[in-house]
Amino acid sequence: MILSDRDIKKAIKEGKIKISPQPNFKTQLGSCSIDLHLGSKFRVFKHSNFAYIDLKGTVDTDAIMKEITVPKGEAFIMQPGDFALATTVENLELCNSLLGRIEGRSSLGRLGIIVHGTASIFDPGWIGKPTMELGNLGVMPVALYPDMRICAFTFEELTSPAEVPYCKKKGNKYAGQKEPLASKLTHEVSAGLKIKGIAAKHI
To answer: What is the set of active-site residues?
Structure first.
């Protein structure tokens, strides 16, 4: 069941959804979603320094990306085909019985800007600044400004509270994040190969 605007307000009032800074319902609340704002930190690939990404390798994905902080009043320009990680201004915390789903804004989508590739679900028990996988699928560069409304969140109620919420899940990778973190998939792949006793290249 997707929460309506009145149920989103109720869940925030009851502390089941915590958004900080406190949202302005007049400008951010839709009929079944709430808009969040773009942060000022972006993480982009240093693609000219690395030939490819080897998920079995020892190169930390953090090393193949760099962080850019956009000064207040300036824009982050997304060229066609560009990809960047970014977070929202807001910190989001979900109770054990609700999941969040990030969606793009229609007005940005019509310009070719997407806010996620595959990672749209935020598990019950999530806490931190949501990361977006920003992409420009259009044919023209687009200037994105920190503090602009960038995405919308919808919320769904589980049939019962999660037994193991995300923040308590062993090995969770991104709980409590405050900035856009690079993918930690290499750690997962390498660990899985070691457990199976497979000798991977570069390990």
So the answer is: 133
The enclosing domain of 82 has a CATH number of 2.70.40.10
Residue 58 lies in a domain: yes
Which residue range forms the structural domain that includes residue 93? 5-196
Q: Is residue 201 part of a domain?
A: no
What's the pTM?
0.83
> What is the tally of structural domains in the chain?
1
Q: Where does the pLDDT of residue 52 fall: very low under 50, low under 70, confident under 90, or very high at 90 and above?
A: confident
Instruction: Dump the DSSP string for the chain.
Output: -B--HHHHHHHHHTTSEEEESPP-HHHHB-SS-EEEEEEEEEEEE-TTT-S---TTSS--GGGGEEEEEPPTT--EEE-TT-EEEEEESSEEEE-TTEEEEEEE-HHHHTTTEES-SS--EE-TT-EEPPEEEEEE-SSS-EEE-TTSEEEEEEEEE-SS--SS-GGGSTT-SSTT--S-PPP-HHHHHHHHHHHHT---TT-
pLDDT tens-digit map of 134-183: 999 999 999 999 999 999 999 999 999 999 876 767 766 655 666 666 56
